[in-house]
Design goal:
By secondary structure, this protein is α/β, with parallel strands linked by helices. It is about 50% helix and about 10% strand. It is built from 9 helices and 5 strands, in the order βααβααβαααβαβα.
Length: about 160
């Protein structure tokens, strides 16, 4: 069985924009099913980003995701080092603020790439490749160079043959 690791935007954009909790219940039932059967997971850094708003999404996550859904990023130190090295190798391309933000220990993106490296799994994100951008490091850039796959929510459901 393939496992996919989700970015915070998978949950936050779904809740705020595409699949509001009060309108598209079938989406959230599917997310709960996939989380409970271990098809999708995430990391503690994503949990922190999602829970910082203390809103309806946080409540839904607490009530519907298994305790094992958010994985501890401490196990990713070696792979995180690879992501840091990748980032430092591009210091002449990215602005210092972009590097600092990407490598901020509290930000999830670099840790998600590390998780994808360690577990050879796809990252589910709404970010798209933008190789010429200098003011933000988007998840697809290190993924492309480090051989980590990434797909968006709809591609995930297509891979899994899920409909809602």
């Amino acid at each position: 069985m393939s496992v996919y690791v989700v970015d915070s935007n998978f949950l936050i954009q779904a809740h705020r924009i595409t699949y509001p909790l009060d309108v598209v219940e079938s989406f959230w039932n599917l997310v709960s099913k996939l989380a409970n059967n271990g098809t999708i997971v995430s990391i503690d850094k994503v949990k922190n980003e999602v829970y910082q708003n203390d809103d309806e999404l946080k409540d839904w996550c607490e009530d519907n995701l298994p305790d094992t859904f958010f994985k501890n990023s401490v196990e990713l130190m070696n792979e995180y080092g690879v992501v840091v090295s990748w980032t430092m190798g591009r210091i002449n391309h990215y602005l210092p603020k972009a590097v600092d933000e990407f490598l901020d220990a509290d930000e999830a993106d670099a840790w998600l790439v590390a998780y994808g490296l360690k577990h050879a799994c796809s990252i589910i994100t709404h970010e798209v490749s933008d190789p010429y951008r200098r003011n933000k490091i988007k998840i697809p850039q290190p993924c492309i160079d480090l051989g980590v796959s990434y797909i968006n929510t709809i591609e995930l459901f297509r891979h899994l043959g899920e409909k809602f």
